[in-house]
Amino acid sequence: MNQDSLDLWKIIGPWSGGVGYTTFLVCFTSTTYINVINSWIFFYVNHSFQSHVPWQKCPLLRNSSDFEPECSRTSPSMYFWYRQILKASNGIEDGGRPALSLIMPYFLSWFLVCVFMINGLKSTGKVLYILVPVSCVIMFCLLIRSLMLDGAEFGLQYLLRMKTSAMYSFSAWSIAGCQVLFDLGLGSGPIISLASHMPRSNNCLSDAFVLGLVKLVTLLVITPCLFSILGFWATATTHRCSERNIETLINLITQGTLPPEAHPPANIGKNPTSVYNTWLRDLPEQLRQLVLSHVPECSRSNQFVKIKESLHFVIPTLVEAISTLPGSALWSLILFLMMLTGGLSTTMGFVHGLVTPLQDSFSFLRKQSRLITVGTSMTMFVCGLFFLRPSGSYFIRLLNVYCTILPIICILLCENIAVAWAYGAKRFIEELKILWGHPLAHIFVSLWRFVNPLMLVALLVAVPVHLSLKPLIYVAWNSKNSTLIIRPYPSWGLVLVISTLVILLFPIPVYFVYCLVYRIPFKSKSQISSLMSSKSINLSDKKRSSMEVSREEILQVVRRESDQPFF
Questions:
Q1: How far apart are CA 188 and CA 322, in angstroms?
Q2: Burial 154-167 (b: 16+ CB within 10 A, else e)
Q3: pLDDT, tens digit, 9 for 90 and up, residues 398-432
């Protein structure tokens, strides 16, 4: 049909016309903050061209040889992430002005997106032909290098360690289902907007299969890569912990705080953690407890537990792990390039989800491709300045976790109902058969008609239950002791979530009521049988049978009848 997300659902199912507007609002909401993440990566890149990167060592105080107190109480990477990049406040209530250090990287992010899309889909396609292969090559390079690291096997073992209890967890499956929807980009606009430019006879089933296969391969490549790097980081961190503990124990014995029997081994070799933990386990229980009362326990497993404590903890941890590799400057740049190629590609898709409906809805904008691209980019740039504030990352988590997934599930469920019930499942399958020249496999029909709606209904029930059982909390930075603490969102945070959900979902019931008031039929009037009749197809004065009608002529009639009003 070559229709954008606003008009498509009015044609397929007149009562589902509000789905397009909800999709547009969800796309707009996500685009306001998605490029902020790219600005964080650009900030890292800007500080990578130094002999000593700032996330490896704490900064010194002015006119002093002492380190910054706030940094000395935590790791340099965490300090750089929360205090230098995010300028994070102690809570979401502490607003403030946008971080000046992020404005230029943020402007650069939007400038690149605007330049890449300035000539419409043709320029976007050329850019994606470069960005996507580059990101794939980078991923494979990182995978090969990460598997060669010391401690990579521990990270892979941690990945493969299955917890059977999670397989029966209601919340685990709901989170996994939501992640699949996010990863495939369904229900948020870009897929339909980009698909509206495809040829009408294009085999969308093959495209969907390729997309799912690419996502699966990407997941199989990037997941072991990340866990191998984190395994290396956990191993290196644990080694440093053991070495510090040995030094501390020797000093305590020298001071007379601990007895001589608590003296650690002198020769720790290349594996200090194994030697230290073996010595610690062999101590008498009373002496062992005395030693642990003065020094922390060093365990690689505990390092992985820390990663789960914060939504943003993986980014500084991954950067810190990469910075400890030989040739860390090169590998850090490669990591940042991979993040940027993926982030900019995603942003371009969301911008297309805004530009295409605007151009199709307002005829005077169709010939102003550059103007609408620049205007949309500028608008999104201004809206995103809100998330550059010290509390901006807390609002991003609020929108991303609580305000977008539920509308996306509702959109997908309404889309399934519109195609299966309003347009007609059998009719839709028959038309696909005409377009592609061969019938659709029964397995795909069954999955689409029965399994997919059931899974969406299950998610629609599971997600609100899962979110309602958890308190409305976020992880905040505490500058007093340089730690991460869990804080509850203020009461107006719940009001903001409910208000955002109401605004995003509001077009669906409103358009439904509009159709009831004006007695618009539930089903589209055009029928596949009418397309095959001589009355519907004005071919020529010479009569031809339906078997002689070309596929392109049928498609032209589909387009013409779809554009007719329903009442």
A1: 33
A2: bbbebbeeeeeeee
A3: 998 889 889 999 999 998 888 888 888 888 888 88
Handedness of CA 463, 464, 468, 473 (dihedral sign): positive
Name the helix (H) or strand (E) containing 484. Answer: strand 483-488
Four-point Cα dihedral 301, 304, 308, 311, nearest 10: 170
Contact by Cβ (8 Å): 405, 57: no
DSSP 8-state assignment for residue 269: T
Amino acid at residue number 369: S
- Provide DSSP, 73-107: TS-HHHHIIIIIIS---SSTT---SPPHHHHHHHH
Phi, psi angle pair for 59, to nearest 5°: -75, 155
Q: How many angstroms separate the CA atoms of 346 and 563, rounded?
A: 31
Sign of the CA dihedral 135, 121, 182, 317?
Answer: positive
- pTM, rounded to two decimals: 0.81
Instruction: Provide CB contacts within 8 A for 362, sequence distance 6+.
Output: none
State the Cα–Cα distance between residues 83 and 99, nearest whole angstrom.
11
CA-to-CA distance for 161 and 32, rounded, in angstroms? 38
476 φ/ψ angles, rounded to the nearest 5 degrees: -115, 160
Rounded Cα distance, 386 and 496, in Å: 15
CA-angle at 459, arms to 454 and 463, nearest 5°: 160
HSE-CB of 417 using CA atoms within 13 angstroms:
15
Cα(520)–Cα(16) distance, integer angstroms: 11
pLDDT digits (tens, 9 = 90+) for 196-248: 777 776 777 788 888 888 888 888 888 888 888 888 888 888 888 888 888 88
Q: Classify 390 as helix, strand or coil.
A: coil
Tokens matching residue 256: 């007379």
User: At residue 38, what is the residue type?
Assistant: N
Q: Show the tokens assigned to 409.
A: 């599930």
